[in-house]
């Protein structure tokens, strides 16, 4: 008789291999670590390092991607590219404006690479990365200064970079 499935008990697939729904599986964690180091690594190469077949790695990666748990993307190292201007903005939303609404307005801006709702004196931390200083000035003038949904902004520009992990979590539990 087929086994009933729930959100916490994934269905079995051919060969009685469970359909993985979590990167907490040890093999998935190891695959993710290797892909973080080199997102272009061949599945056969990853499999050799982990003692499984390349097909197993391909299936695991496919399942994690289909479940929306894994994306393989190219990430530009801002230190290597040496953008002309980048800044972190501490933003306090105006009274009656939610941080979510403000974040939603800023999200489509191509120079905005990071938006985080935070506690403390700011509501949002927003990272902006620009190819030219004039692009940062234009962004600030068009989207930040004088806008009714922003009560206060503190613009902090980069002087130097000591560590940047490209927003990738290096340790997968």
Concise account of the structure shown:
The chain has six helices and six strands; from the N terminus they run ββααααβαββαβ. The chain has helices spanning 26-37, 43-50, 54-66, 78-81, 99-106, 133-144; strands at 12-13, 17-18, 85-93, 112-117, 124-130, 150-157.
Describe the structure.
The chain is built from six helices and six strands. By secondary structure, the protein is α+β, with helices and mostly antiparallel strands. The protein has two domains: 55 residues, Arc Repressor Mutant, subunit A (Orthogonal Bundle), CATH 1.10.10; 79 residues, Lrp/AsnC effector binding domain/regulation of amino acid metabolism (RAM) domain (Alpha-Beta Plaits). A four-stranded antiparallel β-sheet has the order 4-5-3-6. A two-stranded antiparallel sheet has the order 1-2. A hairpin with a 3-residue loop joins strand 1 and strand 2. The N terminus and C terminus are likely disordered.
If strands are numbered along the chain, what order do they take across the biggest sheet?
4-5-3-6
Overall spatial form? elongated
Per DSSP E runs of 2 or more residues, the count of β-strands stands at 6
Q: What is the straight-line distance between the termini?
A: 35 Å
Q: How many whole angstroms does the radius of gyration measure?
A: 21 Å
CATH-defined superfamily of the largest domain:
Lrp/AsnC effector binding domain/regulation of amino acid metabolism (RAM) domain
Instruction: Give the integer mean of the pLDDT values.
Output: 80
CATH top level of the largest domain is Alpha Beta
Pick out the low-confidence regions: 1-19, 169-173
Count structural domains: 2
> How much strand?
15-25%
CATH topology category name of the largest domain = Alpha-Beta Plaits
CATH architecture of the largest domain: 2-Layer Sandwich
Order of helices and strands: EEHHHHEHEEHE
User: What's the main sheet like?
Assistant: 4 strands, antiparallel
Judged by helices, strands and strand pairing, the structural class is alpha+beta
Count of DSSP H/I helices: 6
Q: Helicity level, as a percent range?
A: 25-40%
């Amino acid at each position: 008789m087929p086994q009933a499935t729930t959100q916490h008990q994934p269905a079995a697939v051919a060969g009685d291999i469970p359909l993985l729904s979590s990167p907490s599986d040890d093999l998935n964690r190891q695959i993710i670590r290797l892909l973080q180091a080199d997102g272009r690594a061949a599945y056969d190469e990853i499999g050799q390092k982990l003692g499984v077949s390349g097909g197993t790695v391909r299936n695991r990666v496919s399942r994690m991607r289909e479940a929306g748990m894994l994306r393989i993307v190219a990430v530009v190292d801002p230190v290597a590219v040496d953008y002309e201007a980048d800044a972190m903005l501490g933003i306090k939303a105006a009274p009656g404006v939610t941080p979510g609404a403000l974040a939603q307005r800023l999200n489509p801006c191509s120079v905005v690479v990071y938006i985080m709702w935070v506690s403390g004196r700011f509501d949002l931390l927003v990272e902006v990365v620009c190819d030219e200083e004039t692009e940062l000035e234009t962004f600030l003038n068009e989207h930040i200064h004088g806008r009714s949904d922003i009560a206060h902004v503190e613009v902090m520009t980069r002087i130097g970079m000591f560590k940047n992990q490209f927003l990738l979590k290096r340790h997968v539990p």
